[in-house]
Amino acid sequence: MADQLQVIRGMHDILPAEMPAWNRLEDEYRILAESYGYRQIRTPIVEKTALFARSIGAVTDIVEKEMYSFEDRNGDSLSLRPENTASVVRACLQAGLLQDQQQRLWYCGPMFRHERPQKGRYRQFHQFGAEAFGIASADIEAELILLAARFWKRLGLDDIALQINSLGSSACRQQFRSILVEYFRDHHTELDEDSERRLETNPLRILDSKNPEMQDLIEAAPTLQDSLGAESLDHFNELRDILDQTGVSYQVNQRLVRGLDYYCHTVFEWVTETLGAQGTVCAGGRYDGLVEQLGGKANFAAGFSMGCERLISMLIDQGQSPPEAGCDVYLVNRGVNSAAVAQSLAETIRELMPRLELVVHAGAGSFKSQMRKADKSGARIALILGESELTAGTVAVKFLRQEKAQAEFSQAEIVTQLASLLN
Ligand code: ATP
Ligand code: MG
Predict the structure, then answer these.
(1) What is the pLDDT of residue 326?
(2) How remote is the CA of residue 356 from the centroid of ligand 2, in Å?
(3) Pocket test for ligand 1, best of 305, 306, 308, 314 (most atoms within 8 A of CB)
(4) According to the 3-state scheme, what is the secondary structure of 376-401?
(5) Torsion-angle region of residue 273: left (phi > 0), alpha (psi -120 to 50) or beta?
(6) For residue 62, how far is its CA from the centre of ligand 2 (angstroms)?
């Protein structure tokens, strides 16, 4: 026998039993985002590699070692998207959506990163996100945070805490960069290989290192706060003020720098301790430089993205994932010409009750085995077309979850009676 093919390492099938949780998550997010005035956008899963190199930054983990890049048949370098923000900006620029107007957008979909698979970290994973363009003030970061906070509330998830920080303007970052380089140069014997390389290319990223052996050194490093100018402080204080007045609790975490290159001013993360090592469920901030970096007119931008698998895992752990729902009605049919009568009756019912979940038994079989399937289907009612019903032009109704006597209706009648029988 041929080897059975397996799913790619780090990627997962979402099986029917898990779909109710996914559908709930997706429905809630769509309704929520739209209720805040965000409109959906979908971009292709594959983009030119240059888009990500130019936006995320050539010396980030993502671009250096996590991207699924390949040459297509024309010899162009393409990549599976590792995140969606760059694509959204590209799409907006291409369609002229950022010209003299604000935009509030949301997205959802799969992302791809060649990371070491572990709980909460996969090679194909899903993100929901929101992006707002054309707004300079910190009220938009506050809105994004409030949206996420409401999402946790709707999902019934507590235990997700907000951390915020300010990276300041690019001038502040520049100044901080030289202070940081000086500090790490003084301690260069304690740097790991990655950090040594970053010292030249992207020293801020050293602060984001996950290497435990680097943590003491990072802990003692100078903080960005001392480099923030008046304008940066004002922006940060405006955000804090709105969060205070709307009752969102947060912690200022001066070590929060975020992995992507394009952030400035506000950065934030929603973190939980219930998921073990992979505790960040949502991350975002302001990224004013990105639109111009991708060839547009300089523009303001802020957004976040959240990891769906981590949220699903919280929903399941906390008993908040809905059970798999069965169908409403199972139509049993047996006898000469019963399949045609069954299909025809079902079509009449479907015409009238478009939301009803009605399964018509297919593939013949004994009455007993059909009833067993009806029971397993989760249906509340079995409609039965047997020899005698076929002759009489009737259909029998059997209640599968209630102590109620079997009933019989004419085939014309059942179409209008079914709704009340299901109540
Ligand atoms: P981390 O520090 O966990 O690697 P990140 O900074 O790379 O996260 P972002 O690029 O900001 O993450 O992505 C936003 C969110 O998407 C994360 O907070 C996380 O919830 C989720 N996420 C990121 N990478 C993965 C992955 N490989 N598998 C599952 N979820 C992920
Ligand atoms: Mg990462």
Answers:
(1) 86
(2) 43
(3) 305
(4) HCCCCEEEEECHHHHHHCEEEEEECC
(5) alpha
(6) 7
pTM over 0.85: yes
Nearest CA to ligand 1 atom 10: 83
pLDDT tens, residue by residue, 8-51 = 999 999 999 899 999 999 999 999 999 999 999 999 999 999 99
> Facing residues of 274 across strands?
none
pLDDT of residue 261: 63
Which of 12, 116, 125, 271 for a ligand 1 pocket mutation test, highest count of atoms within 8 Å of Cβ?
125
Q: Count of CB atoms within 10 A of residue 263's CB?
A: 25
259 close to ligand 1 (CB < 6 Angstrom): yes
Tell me the one-letter amino acid at 326: G
- Cβ–ligand 1 distance for 310 under 6 Å, the answer yes
Give the span between the Cα atoms of 74 and 201, in whole angstroms.
Answer: 32
Residue-wise pLDDT tens digits, 197-228: 888 888 888 887 888 999 999 989 998 888 89
Residue 65, C-beta contacts closer than 8 angstroms, at least 6 positions apart? 114
Q: Which atom of ligand 1 is nearest to the CA of 82?
A: 10
pLDDT at 254: 86
Spell out, as residue ranges, where the chain has pLDDT lower than 50. none
Asked if 40 contacts 30 with a C-beta cutoff of 8 angstroms, the reply is yes
Smallest-distance ligand from the CA of 123: 1
The token duo for 39 is 């409109």
pLDDT tens per residue, range 174-198: 888 889 899 999 998 899 988 988 8
127 Cβ inside 6 Å of ligand 1: yes
pLDDT at 1: 57
Gap between the Cα atoms of 314 and 243, Å rounded: 25
Whether 280 is in the pocket of ligand 1, judged by its Cβ within 6 Å, is yes
Ligand 1 touching residue 281 (CB < 6 A): yes
Atom of ligand 1 minimally distant from the CA of 258? 6
State the pLDDT at residue 44.
Answer: 98
Among residues 110, 100, 85, the alpha carbon closest in space to that of 11 is found at 110
Q: How many CB atoms lie within 10 A of CB 366?
A: 9
